[in-house]
Amino acid sequence: MAVVEQTYPIGEKRFFQRASFTGSAKEYFGIWIVNVLLTIITFGIYSAWAKVRRNRYFYGNTALLGHTFEYHAKGKQIFIGRLIVFGFLIVSQIVTTAAPLAALIVTPLLILAFPWFLMRGLRFNARVTSYRNVRFDFVGTYGGAFKAIFLGGLVTIISVGILTPIAARWFYKYVFDNLRYGDRPFSTDPTLGAFYKALGVAIAVALLGVIVLGGLAVAISGASPDAAMSGSMGAVSVWHWTIVGFVIIYAIAGLFYRAMVRNIVWSATMIDRRHSLLSDVGRRRYAWIAISNVIVTFATLGLMRPWAAVRLQRYLTEHTAIHVDGEIGVVFDQIRSTGSAISAEYLDVDGFDFGF
Fold this sequence. Notes:
The chain is of the alpha+beta class. The chain is 63% helix and 14% strand. A twelve-stranded antiparallel β-sheet has the order 1-2-12-11-10-9-8-7-6-5-4-3. It is globular.
């Protein structure tokens, strides 16, 4: 079991034990290909059961402190949850088509319903997950979801992205501060400055990429005889690849930001105000894995998707760690004694599998 040492500003040293992923692309390919074929044959209906099989494999191969996670959802739960959501959307579409003015009422209702569905999704995903026979839970309210998702998105749009770190902090605090392991609370308190630093790095990467690519495009177009005439194939080709380059640069910047935010949030998270989490994902390595996964998946017409999924999961898992304050066996025995009782109502949660 890999151990990493972390020194905190006050001089305290903590030793974190890394998680591990034991799955393989060969094993997962068998699950994946069956899921794909049955989903196609059933016109998408089997996708709910496919998600259960997939998650049980990935959760069951994610080990922390010598134990793996478990996924307890049933395909029927997820299928019914999806039927409710799609039924709601279909009815809304029919109503607005039959009576266009009804959109003035239906659209706000859809906006108001969105945070509720996502809140229920977070609760569902938490409650069907267990570790050492103790379930997770999510106790967030609709009001918190509305602030984290709707108001956060609104603030980001109105500020043209300047206040994105504030919205991100709202969101992640909503998710982690309302997460429970048995009856033990999670909490996170990342600094706003860390989010702005991550955003600054992403913006700098994007701007540098745009300047370099734009300069290369102008230089190549000016040096190419084919680009002398407006609309020439040479110029079109140069600017076509330049646009592709801009998309890749934007993706890299976004992936850098995502990796940094993951590290910020997870490394500021505590369980039961005692046990610390750690994430040390490398932004360049993470971006390389994500982008190369997409390229390889497309190049193989999707056949390498299992390899890509396992590769990314292994990297993220192996760069996640925990510091347990106390003797591990005693700590988890105490949690198990107070957090293992689960009522029928707890298990009979709606299968809205929308989460983050």
